[in-house]
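Q: Sequence in, structure out?
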Amino acid sequence: MPTPSHPRSISGPINPSMMTDMYEYTMLDATLRDGTANRDCVFEVFTRHLPEGRRYGVVAGIGRLLDELEAFHPSEADLRFLSDRHIVDKETITWLENYHFNGTIRGYREGEAYFPNSPILQVEGTFGECTLLETLILSILNYDSAVAAAASRMTSAAKNRPCMDMGGRRTNEWAAVAAARASIVGGFKGTANLLAAQLYGLTAIGTAAHCFTLVHDSERAAFESQIAALGKNTTLLVDTYNIEEAVRTAVEVAGPELGGVRIDSGDLAALAQRVRNQLDALGAVNTKITVTNDLDEYAIAALQTAPVDSYGVGTQLVTGSGAPTCAMVYKLTERMGAHGVMEPVAKKSKDKATVPGRKLAFRSYEYSLASCEHVIAGSAQALADFAPGEGWKNLLVDYVDHGQIDDQWRGHDAIINARDYHAQSLSELPITAQSLMRGDPVIPTETTVLPQ
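A: Exactly. Output:
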């Protein structure tokens, strides 16, 4: 499979430094004036709760975030816009001319399961350089993680039958590319989106739609055309008119070597059974059956006993199957005080209180199954002195070290590694994690604040 020589941003000519909220720049402007922009800070990404009834979340979008971070430099046109709109003053424009994130980012591995209050990402640097990244970080992680979680539930329901992304026509054109990538992290095997396949070296899938059949004078003529162009191993769409007649025609045209048929309407379980029996009777015993038609994890689970070989998923994948965001937030947890000493900070707002201090994160196990998420908060020295329990798994890895991006977390190989890592992470959770029934997070999260 061809792999891009290096990762590329899906933003294209649009600079990611402008894909942000205005108040990131107005805060920068004000803090540059009063001197607090240069205070060292630690920001944290976490969610207070999973989508209702979900048992776990899936971290996704890290590779995309690192790609965008590398390109996060306001252009001359961007700076002119900020100046012309009087969003920031001249001194801030001068500061932005040389902007490059020189901080450190660590967090959960892409593909890792997460839970309420998991410190998914921690961003360290000056207030000025970190605050600009809030919207970019949250927009990527919230969406990509939602899609990856939906994909994970779908692939679990599919029981080793491959799922393919066909959601590009059901969302924003850039979101479609992000969703294709995130679906792979969640366990999908390929995508219909060519830009995603091109950028990330993913398997591209697709043959023909109903319009292809309709434009020909007969279904037979359409099948003959497709096979002439794509070969006998192609997949023919058989529900434009009458499925039984279409299957018979498909095998007559391609012979028993026909690669596959796709069903896109009706009672998929009953139709798949009839088509399987018909294909076998016609000698096409190796012909695969793919089903589509607005599938979600529940529909896929209902097809577990049907003779289906693969699933094409669209709308429900790219919308997170009812949970299109993860409610992740980006909060300041530590900052340098007036006397040059790092101090923990926290919100005390009703129902939105935060845990002060930088964090460590571990997962403990019992009988080889995850039993608890441990979040340890405190000063840098207190965390350095902390001794985790025996067998606890450290959940944090380094992504950026003083501005230097670790490229092992970007590109095609990183996506495949994240998919494999997610499968391993999911296998370590209690089996109830894979239940589609609504319930609480499959393991609890315990937060400990160490003495300073």
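The chain has two domains: 16-132+326-449, 159-319.
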